[in-house]
Amino acid sequence: MPGSKLLFLVLESIDSNWWSDHVRGVARPLTLRPRVKFVGHEQGFPKPIAICVYDPSWPTGGPEELWDYKT
């Protein structure tokens, strides 16, 4: 839908082809720190996770950001 904002929770695979093709320069990735803990698990997820925000009103090619959130 034109003008829609999309958010995706994805593995942060900055060295992969899909990241280069579909995230870098297209979406605003927000790295989640500390590691996300899913319900029912004691430990954080073993790999870094990012929220990728696709918003047509933002200029492309923006910097990647780090998002500190409280657990």
Notes on the structure:
It is built from one helix and four strands. It has a four-stranded mixed sheet, with no helix packed on it. Helix content is 8%, strand content 31%. The protein is mainly β and 71 residues long. The mean pLDDT is 81. The chain has one domain.
Brief digest:
This protein has 71 residues and is mainly beta. The protein has one helix and four strands. It has one domain.
Q: Which sequence of strands runs across the widest sheet?
A: 1-3-2-4
* Topology, number of strands: 4
Portion of residues in helices?
Answer: under 10%
Strand content range: 25-35%
Biggest beta sheet attributes: 4 strands, mixed
Distance between the termini: 33 Å
- SSE order in H/E notation? EHEEE
Q: Mean pLDDT, nearest integer? A: 81
* Gyration radius from CA atoms, angstroms: 13 Å
Broad shape: globular
Query: Which segments are poorly predicted (pLDDT under 50) over 5 or more consecutive residues?
Result: none
Structural class: mainly beta
What's the number of domains?
Answer: 1
User: How many alpha or pi helices?
Assistant: 1
